[in-house]
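Hi all, posting the design record for the shared folder.

TITLE: backbone redesign
STEP: 1 of 1
STRUCTURE INPUT:
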């Protein structure tokens, strides 16, 4: 269904606004720099000065005007509405499986497009020109030519909705503590357009630009949790769980005896859970919601909030009633981490889990939150909170109709009721039958379950497996992915993990995995924001991180100890070798796109064997259908990222499948040498290759 709401181009409006503002400021001589990586489209205005640090001095208005006029708009086809999804635009019919041919880039605009433009060693909300140094949608446009160069055709954005500042983590707070689904985070507004454009229009312009360049846009949606001061608290306090404000000091997840650490709660665990003294005492902390327990006080709260919109409504509720929304916590038993101060769980069912009902007297017990309730997909009740479900299932259609997005990752979707998941999918696909859904499912064994629910792919566990090359976990992941029922991400880092360049193997490991990920069968290549510049500092220390992970930078670095997910952070776009991976990915994407149907069809891929079981060689043969010469591609990697060595790659099966009896081959790509004729065939017709540390070769 085409987006009928959009009657004009937000991108053209942005261009007009920039031209208007540029005229108003044409007397200003700008000392405003951008990293040269933001100038892949080669803007050469008369004011441009290349500095020795890798920065480029530009007039920000002229730079953006040139970007839109010279790089984006020339690719726009006449009479096409780019404010709708690309699937609708192209009239596709693949149920969202376009993701199988995607190359995804994970972007957090607040950090991805941040830069110290006036070189004060601070990221200012308003610098000397009244412009923002943290990232915005408008500044994110400057990244699109770089992403295009790297072969990216899917921009996956971390949450962009308004998030809580009441219990914020770090300087700015986590975008995952969503406060209002229907309002975009105001920090992403760019004052460069003056008061002529709204934040929503700026986002529309960004999506439109992506679509013109052939890039789809997917967002992150969190239907299980919300900020503790969610705007929905005012209209529906019964959708949340409540405790006394004074009890926050003693509020912690209870221990369950007889159960291992980090055990997933299932109905079979109910006897252990509800016979635990800590659980019984914990449940007693919960109270009725303040609207039902104190109707007159609630009316007073609504009046105060209405007359004082600057006040935080949860603070008012706490002040008047002494109650607060209960913090969420892990949905596994005996997890040592503390409660999550910024978010809470939605009340998915109006009754307790079926397995818990024999142990809990619903008449005398207030609605309570527990790990089994948090894992409602495994522990459902009998009475779905239908009104809440309808609300949650209406969020994605809003973003489809207003902004024309192409897909959505469902955060912790495996923990919400399956029927809610199906309702969310149904509503979205009534608008766009080819809307793509990505499951935050980290266990490969659950890919079949995700497929049955309607997901197009899963996240998978590549972020954990791939960097462990010396444990041969990378081999296990790359060879097993082919047999998954739906694809997973080929990724070596995410916004929650260590940076791959900071692991054992450093840049050799980063190069090796980034290159191999473009060609692993049945996967979607995934590039985490700033992975392409060997960023060391993680965005978060949530998964698979060391205790010192936030302290890897030089203490003199302005970003030392900061985490992009919570703080004002700018990536090191001018780090040494910052063009190395983008240039490599440009070549690899050209090879991939030249035979896209081949490289994205798992049935065409054969795993390659090597001389020894524990040899560090890894690779695949992609065999075309008996097409004569040049019909086999070999992607061969060397997972030893510290030493060079000989490896013997067995290619008899690939040559037989291709019915190509000769031994003519060309090296068309290597991370370490130039293209050449391959002469390393041994007497058995296999390849005996000298491989540098972490080298990847592609042989045709």
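Okay, here is what came back for every position:
SEQUENCE:
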């Amino acid at each position: 269904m085409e987006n009928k709401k959009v009657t004009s181009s937000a991108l053209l409006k942005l261009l007009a606004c920039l031209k208007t503002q540029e005229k108003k400021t044409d007397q200003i001589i700008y000392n405003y720099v951008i990293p040269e990586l933001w100038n892949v489209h080669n803007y050469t205005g008369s004011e441009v000065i290349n500095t020795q640090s890798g920065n480029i001095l530009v007039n920000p208005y002229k730079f953006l005007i040139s970007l839109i006029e010279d790089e984006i708009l020339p690719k726009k086809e006449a009479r096409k509405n780019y404010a709708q999804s690309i699937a609708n635009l192209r009239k596709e019919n693949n149920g969202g499986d376009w993701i199988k041919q995607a190359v995804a880039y994970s972007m957090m605009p607040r950090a991805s497009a941040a830069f110290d433009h006036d070189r004060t060693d601070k990221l200012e909300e308003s610098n000397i020109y009244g412009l923002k140094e943290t990232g915005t949608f408008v500044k994110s446009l400057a990244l699109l030519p770089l992403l295009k160069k790297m072969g990216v055709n899917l921009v996956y954005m971390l949450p962009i909705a308004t998030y809580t500042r009441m219990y914020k983590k770090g300087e700015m707070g986590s975008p995952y503590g969503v406060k209002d689904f229907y309002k975009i985070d105001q920090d992403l507004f760019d004052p460069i357009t003056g008061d002529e454009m709204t934040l929503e229009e700026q986002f529309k312009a960004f999506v439109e630009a992506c679509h013109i360049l052939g890039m789809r846009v997917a967002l992150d949606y969190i239907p299980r949790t919300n900020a503790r001061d969610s705007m929905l608290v005012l209209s529906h306090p019964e959708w949340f769980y409540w405790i006394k404000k004074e009890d926050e000091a003693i509020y912690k997840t209870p221990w369950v005896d007889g159960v291992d650490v980090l055990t997933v709660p299932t109905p079979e665990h109910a006897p252990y859970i509800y016979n635990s003294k800590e659980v019984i005492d914990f449940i007693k902390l919960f109270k009725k919601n303040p609207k039902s327990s104190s109707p007159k006080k609630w009316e007073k709260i609504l009046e105060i909030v209405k007359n004082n919109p600057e006040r935080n409504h949860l603070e008012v509720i706490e002040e008047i009633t002494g109650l607060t929304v209960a913090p969420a916590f892990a949905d596994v038993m005996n997890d040592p981490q503390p409660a999550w101060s910024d978010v809470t769980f939605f009340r998915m069912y109006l009754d307790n889990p079926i397995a818990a009902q024999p142990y809990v007297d619903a008449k005398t017990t207030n609605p309570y939150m527990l790990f089994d309730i948090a894992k409602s997909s495994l522990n459902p009740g009998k009475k779905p909170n239908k009104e809440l479900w309808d609300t949650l299932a209406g969020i994605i259609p809003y973003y489809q109709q207003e902004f024309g997005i192409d897909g959505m990752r469902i955060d912790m979707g495996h923990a919400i009721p399956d029927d809610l998941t199906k309702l969310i999918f149904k509503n979205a696909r009534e608008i766009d039958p080819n809307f793509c859904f990505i499951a935050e499912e980290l266990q490969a064994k659950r890919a079949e379950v995700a497929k049955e629910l309607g997901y197009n792919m899963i996240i998978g566990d590549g972020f954990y497996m791939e960097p462990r090359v010396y444990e041969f976990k990378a081999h296990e992941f790359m060879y097993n992915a082919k047999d998954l029922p739906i694809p997973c991400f080929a990724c070596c880092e995410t916004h929650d993990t260590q940076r791959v360049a900071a692991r054992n193997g450093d840049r050799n490991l980063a190069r090796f995995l980034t290159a191999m990920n473009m060609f692993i069968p049945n996967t979607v290549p995934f590039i985490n924001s700033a992975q392409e510049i060997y960023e060391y500092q993680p965005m978060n220390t949530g998964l698979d991180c060391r205790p010192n992970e936030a302290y890897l930078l030089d203490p003199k670095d302005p970003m030392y100890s900061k985490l992009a997910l919570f703080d004002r952070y700018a990536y090191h776009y001018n780090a040494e070798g910052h063009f190395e991976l983008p240039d490599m990915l440009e070549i690899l994407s050209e090879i991939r796109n030249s035979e896209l149907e081949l490289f994205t069809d798992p049935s065409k891929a054969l795993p390659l064997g090597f001389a020894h079981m524990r040899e560090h060689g890894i690779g695949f043969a992609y065999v075309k259908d008996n097409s004569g010469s040049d019909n086999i591609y070999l992607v061969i990697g060397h997972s030893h990222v510290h030493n060079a060595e000989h490896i013997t790659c067995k290619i008899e099966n690939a040559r037989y499948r291709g019915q190509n009896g000769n031994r003519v081959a060309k090296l068309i790509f290597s991370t370490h040498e130039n293209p050449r004729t391959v002469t390393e065939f041994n007497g058995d017709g296999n390849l005996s290759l000298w491989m540098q540390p972490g080298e990847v070769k592609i042989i045709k």
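COMMENT: The longest strand covers residues 178-184.
Let me know if anyone wants the other runs.
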